[in-house]
Specification:
globular; ten-stranded mixed beta sheet; about 35% helix; Rossmann fold; 24 helices; Quinone Oxidoreductase, Chain A, domain 1; 32 strands; seven-stranded mixed beta sheet; about 725 residues; alpha/beta
Length: about 725
């Protein structure tokens, strides 16, 4: 097998052919799928190896002390031979990986051959094709978690143990100094714990990344902005805890911690920075200085790590292995996102060149992964089910005039894009508005003329006089509220997305089947836009496959937007992407059969390629980094020697044997909400078909979910059951 090694004396890096390790009792043999380069710890070792002997001595005074002790005991010649022999040997690199169990040793009963596991340890989770890993240094990977994300398990455990040492509490404010790989993970863990975080790093790119991942503010160590943010968030008292995740020889992090920490605050050292504590500053504030020992309790204990002797959970709640499992669980549930931290994925055969690029600064990265050639874990193509709609419809009665509507939620979209189109519509009565807070319900009642306002959803669902319910709440509640309203016999209009998971989608369809009520509309309004309707008609029918390109200049979100709460509300594309998939499918008059998605490293820009039954393709470029002045949506469709173009719902054109261009007079952007609501109200009033078939809504939702599945798997996703 192949393994990355380094000669500490010469600094040479190499990928060597070495024997396959034996599968000893008490552990498993793991074939690597992905291993993680720690751009802090490992590059420090690589840099030290390239130093002169004097430089090596200066960088490791602890080892120099051991050498001097050996000289005193064994003499200079013997010590010299011992030291040179050790230096002039190959040493391994790596300590965090994910792979597949290839053999199971005696005494192991918690995993089997073929299981995916995350592994830890600088002697057992090496950059090598195969590793033997003892029981307490691996843990099974949760279902659905991508192997390349699970490879972060060890560094995640280091960050998690550091946060545990800080003992954060809800509502506290923390300072994270150093926004490298560990610092970025600490920021996310603290934010997930209800702590407001200020980050410090001289690199503005890393500061911006930390803010996207949950930090309240970030800045350069010497900037006034950091001190101002701390003062604002803490009322001038200082942060409750400081996490030192920086490296290097500067004492600035320690001094900054003392200056910005509150009286009797906590300072936790996670990284390896200089620790010349300014005595007066730390004494006067009585600061509590703590150290975080790597992955957690059990580290450096051979009985725990090598012999598999666990600590009783009643005495040691969080051991190395439990920290590893906990971090993987946080990843699987979306509480922590490592995707934006991956700067580069290199083939394992290119390991030496990758290290050189990192060392020389040609490759600037937060995290780099090695991808191994044999990845049985990803052999099977991922799938997302497109459930078939099975319903024995009950009788559909036309509503009385006026049609009585209830709104669940009265946020910005409801009050700006939906309710203004309904307030003056003939034959419509706004019956009841339901919100979680009394005042927002009262405001909506006053502004739009609802007959009643309440916080009691059950009362609305039980009111037989209400014909239809609009669900316009946060994304995480859409599926459950829709399910309840369908079971109550209501016609439902739910804003996108219909569901954030396959289970949520299945729950909605189970409610349809149980109730016989399939009267459902999702707010995919673009297909109702007058200009898009006209340009589609002028394009006419097609006979051959089409190529569609849809550029969405989504722009950046303001800090604090609930759209950024991906752990609970899903990704931005999960919330908005259904619009664009539905538009593409409507223009192509089919539902997609597969989805392939790739993301730009470090941000939320996506390329989503949809394939359709007749060979047509639609490419959706969803970008958040474009200029504010550029149009938000531009669309092109080419087929049969014809081309259709839509420019941000302001102008459109068709090129063929004849050319048609819409009016060049400026128009307001009409994205179809008014026509969509008119069609919905008509269906409720007459009892006629819903504006969009339910199977189409399901297919669009499944395709939207498949984007996240594809990003996690790094492979195309088949839409199983797609028609």
């Amino acid at each position: 097998m192949k393994q990355v090694v380094q000669n500490y004396k010469s600094g040479e890096l190499a990928v060597l052919d070495v024997p396959v390790p034996g599968c000893k009792p008490g552990g498993v043999l793991v074939r690597s799928a992905y291993s993680l380069i720690s751009t802090g710890t490992e590059l420090m070792k690589v840099s030290e190896a390239g130093m002169s002997m004097l430089g090596k001595a200066r960088s490791r005074p602890d080892q120099v002390a051991k050498v001097m002790q050996s000289v005193a005991t064994n003499g200079v010649p013997a010590t010299y031979r011992k030291v040179m022999g050790k230096l002039d040997s190959y040493t391994p690199l790596g300590y965090s990986l994910c792979g597949v169990v290839e053999q199971v040793g005696a005494g192991i009963d918690d995993v089997k051959v073929g299981d995916l596991v995350a592994c830890a340890g600088n002697e057992h989770a090496l950059h090598a094709e195969l590793n033997w890993v003892p029981k307490n240094l691996y843990t099974p990977v949760p279902d659905g978690l991508a192997p390349r994300h699970a490879a972060f398990g060890t560094v995640g455990s280091i960050a998690l143990q550091g946060v545990r040492q800080g003992e954060p509490q809800l509502g506290e404010v923390a300072l994270v100094i150093g926004l490298g790989l560990i610092g970025q993970l600490v920021v996310q863990l603290l934010a997930a714990s209800g702590v407001r975080v200020v980050g410090v790093d001289p690199d503005p790119v890393r500061c911006e990344l930390a803010e996207r991942l949950g930090a309240a503010a970030c800045g350069d160590p010497g900037s006034a902005a950091v001190e101002a943010a701390v003062a604002e968030l803490t009322g001038g008292h200082g942060v409750d805890q400081v996490y030192l995740a920086a490296g290097g020889g500067s004492n600035q992090p320690v001094e900054l911690a003392a200056r910005l920490c509150r009286d009797r605050g906590r300072v936790v050292d996670i990284g390896k920075c200089r620790l010349d504590l300014p005595w007066n500053a730390y004494y006067e504030k009585e600061l509590d200085v703590r150290f975080s020992r790597s992955y957690g309790p059990g580290r450096y204990d051979p009985e725990y790590e090598l012999e598999g002797r666990d600590y009783p959970i009643g005495y040691v709640r969080w051991t190395e292995r439990r920290n590893l499992a906990c971090f993987l669980d946080l990843l699987a549930r979306g509480s922590v996102d490592v995707g934006p931290l991956i700067s580069h994925i290199a083939d394992f055969d290119d390991a030496v060149e990758t290290y050189r690029s990192l060392k020389d600064g040609d490759l600037k990265a937060v995290a780099v992964l090695f991808r191994y050639p044999e990845q049985a874990v990803e052999a099977a193509a991922p799938q997302v089910a497109v459930p078939a709609v099975n319903v024995k419809r009950g009788p559909v009665r036309a509503a009385k005039t006026p049609v009585r509507l209830a709104f669940v939620g009265a946020g910005n979209y409801a009050t700006s894009m939906l309710l203004p189109h309904l307030t003056q519509r003939d034959g419509v009565e706004l019956s009841t508005v339901v919100t979680t807070t009394a005042l927002s319900a009262a405001n909506a009642k006053r502004k739009f003329g609802f007959a009643a306002a309440t916080t009691d959803l059950d009362a609305v669902l039980g009111d037989r006089s209400i014909d239809a319910v609009f669900v316009v709440t946060r994304h995480s509640s859409h599926a459950e509220l829709t399910r309840k309203a369908l079971l109550a016999g209501k016609t439902v209009f739910v804003e996108k997305p219909l569901a954030l998971t396959e289970d949520e989608l299945a729950g909605v369809l189970a409610a349809v089947e149980e109730s016989g009520n399939d009267r459902l509309q999702v707010g995919f309004n673009r297909r109702f836009a007058p200009l898009l309707q006209e340009v589609r008609e002028r394009f006419g029918a097609r006979t051959g496959p089409a190529n569609l390109r849809y550029l969405v200049n989504a722009g950046r979100l303001q800090h604090g937007s609930w759209y950024l709460q991906q752990g609970t509300e899903g990704s931005r594309f999960a919330g908005e992407g259904g619009h664009f998939i539905d538009t593409a499918s409507w223009l192509l008059d089919a539902d997609p059969v597969s989805v392939y998605a790739v993301a730009t490293s470090g941000n939320e820009d996506l390329q989503v390629v949809l394939r359709y039954p007749d060979g047509s393709t639609a490419t959706i470029s969803y970008v958040t980094t474009g200029p504010a002045g550029f149009p938000k949506e531009t669309l092109d469709l080419v087929a049969d020697g014809k081309a259709l173009r839509l420019d941000d719902f302001v102008r459109a054109s068709v090129y063929g044997r004849k050319r048609w261009v819409s009016s060049r007079l400026p128009k307001a952007r009409d994205k179809g909400q008014n026509a969509e609501l008119a069609a919905f109200v008509k269906a409720v009033r007459t009892g006629g078909p819903m504006p969009v078939p339910l199977q189409s809504l399901v297919a669009t939702t499944a395709a939207t979910l498949a984007v996240q599945t594809g990003l996690a798997a790094g492979a195309p996703v088949t839409l199983a059951g797609a028609r």
